[in-house]
Amino acid sequence: MSSTFYNPKDKIKIFNTVVDPVSEKESREILSGFLDEGGFHWIFTPNTEIVMALRDDAEKAAVMNEADLVVPDGIGLIIGSKMGGHPLEERVTGYDLSIYLLELAKEKNERIFFLGGEPNVAAEAKKRVEEKYGSIVAAEHHGYFKGAHRGYENSEEEAAVIRAINESGASILFVGLGFPKQEQFLLNNRDKLENIVVAIGNGGVLDVLAGKAKRAPDIFIRLHLEWFYRLLKNPSRIGRQMAIPKFLWTIARNKKAVTVVKENRGGSHES
């Protein structure tokens, strides 16, 4: 953590991914503090599928673990951490944190830049958000541009996007490019984002804000069955959803897959 006000608890490491054991309430307080503090803060919201992918890529996981706040966006991570003897507090979704950032922008008179989605999605999201929250969206840009996150180094298209973000004056950035492209975009450009204080890679959130996609009904959310709702709506996701039982089975066979990373002034170490 680069923040001077946020004193992190001991973290929970699941395979190669280090997660902050924070509640949604604590996460909201941290986001508000980041905005007050200034500087650049990046939020990573891995779900079970992402943690399983990073299990096989320690190098990429080490880079993702550089995020200033890592929240568990998947009920599988909560169950698995309990099975491993080091329980995370609760699921904290990227969607809910994104909605809270909209509320914070209105409350603190901040501006947001929407980046991602198909052409016209970010624009429609901007329109709908401003109908509810007022003029909090500084500007937007679709996610179909060439950049290092897609294997195009020194792309003028990416440079133009960075200029647009900087010229917008936005302090909050939503990046909806999907994992790992959105994280790679932030890592590649964090030193170039002149005004951004809080950046979050939030996948399909812009699609929901634009009305292109729907979040699961409340009953599925309360029962932690959003994954099942998505499977019902799109049976072709069955391969992706198998990451959850595979994840839990792997932890059941090896509870040392979940460890504690001690935080102290001299740095971090596992126990």
Keywords:
10 strands, alpha/beta, 45% helix, six-stranded parallel beta sheet, four-stranded antiparallel beta sheet, globular, 271 residues
Please describe what this structure looks like.
The protein is of the alpha/beta class. The protein has helices at about 25-35, 50-55, 60-65, 75-85, 95-110, 120-135, 155-170, 180-190, 205-210, 220, 225-235, 240, 245-255; strands spanning about 10-15, 15-20, 40-45, 70, 110-115, 135-140, 170-175, 200, 260-265, 265-270. The model has no long low-confidence stretch (mean pLDDT about 90). The strands form 2 sheets. Strands 4-3-8-7-5-6 form a 6-stranded parallel beta sheet, sandwiched between helices. Helix 1 crosses helix 5 (about 95-110) and helix 4 (about 75-85) packs parallel to helix 13 (about 245-255).
Give the uncertain stretches in residue-range form: none
The dominant shape is globular
Provide the β-strand percentage band. Answer: 15-25%
Tally of DSSP β-strands: 10
Oligomer: single chain
Task: Encode the helix/strand succession as letters.
Answer: EEHEHHEHHEHEHEHEHHHHHEE
Q: Strands across the major sheet, in which order?
A: 4-3-8-7-5-6
Distance between the termini: 19 Å
Q: What share of the residues lie within helices?
A: 40-55%
Structural class: alpha/beta
Mean pLDDT across residues: 90
Count the DSSP helices. Answer: 13
Rg, please?
18 Å
Q: Profile the largest sheet.
A: 6 strands, parallel
Topology:
Blueprint: E1 11-14, E2 17-19, H1 24-37, E3 41-44, H2 48-55, H3 58-64, E4 69-70, H4 75-83, H5 94-108, E5 112-116, H6 121-133, E6 137-141, H7 156-168, E7 172-176, H8 181-189, E8 198-201, H9 205-209, H10 218-222, H11 226-233, H12 238-241, H13 243-253, E9 258-264, E10 267-270
Parallel strand pairs: 3-4, 3-8, 5-6, 5-7, 7-8
Antiparallel strand pairs: 1-2, 1-9, 9-10
Helix pairs in contact: 1-5, 4-13
